[in-house]
Design goal:
38% of the residues lie in helices and 17% in strands. It has 278 residues and is an alpha/beta fold. The protein has two domains: 189 residues, Vaccinia Virus protein VP39 (Rossmann fold); 87 residues, no CATH class. The protein is elongated. 40% of the residues are buried.
Length: 278
Amino acid sequence: MPGVLEVTGTMELAGRDLGKGRETVRLSRRLKAVAGMVTKGNMVCDVGCDHGFVSIYLVQKNISPGAIAMDVNNGPLQAAGEHILDYGLQNYIEPRLSNGVEALKAGEADSLICAGMGGRLVIRILEEGKSKIRSMKEIILQPQSEIRSVREYLRKEGYRIVDENMILEEEKFYPVIKAEPAGKAGTEEMKAPGGQNPAKGQGAKDGRHTAVNQRIEDKYGPVLLEKRNPVLEIFLHREYDLCMEIMEKLRRNGKDERQEEIAGRIRDIERGLSYFTL
């Protein structure tokens, strides 16, 4: 697709022909939250692009000057290519078959998006593409599972979580994480072990960042907790009610082997909820 890689993250966004007369692509609230994390002017690499709608949205809204929409499967990639043509954006978005970021060249993208996939796959993509991804300005992740593991990986690999959101859509909770490599120009110095802000909830009122606080932040999100995200609060209350229900059944049935596990989950939920009462 000629021309797309000549677009730079600093080019002027105004005055482009973005397919006049075509409707703006509609995104789910989850994907709109993902797109909303992208810094304006950044070239985007969307890994696991599915049908390419996030890339289309970013270009239509003049958030990104161009995008590379990647998928490991031919079917979704072909659909993405057709949608890109339908919206007249073939000069701005390039569909590219790729396992993770294998087909990405160094310096082609400023922002990485990995959305709608399991946490283990997200970690694998980040790990296998480490040399390319570390040079990017930001990564935006929306893992569907193993969310704690994703945050732990980011922390241990020297990323700072700079923004988070949580969306409740069709009775499902979707966390969105934006992270930057530690030491990036314009970011604050690390304030605590792992690069996150000191915990502000239960057990951290004296400002110390303990292993317990770190676990709570990894589980529920340092920025979500700091901002007292209302959807996270709903999630924690639902988890609390579910765990209490499970605990009551275990007690009635005389099953002791899982009670300590559930009790531990309840304690962590209570610590998470304590952020909302300060």
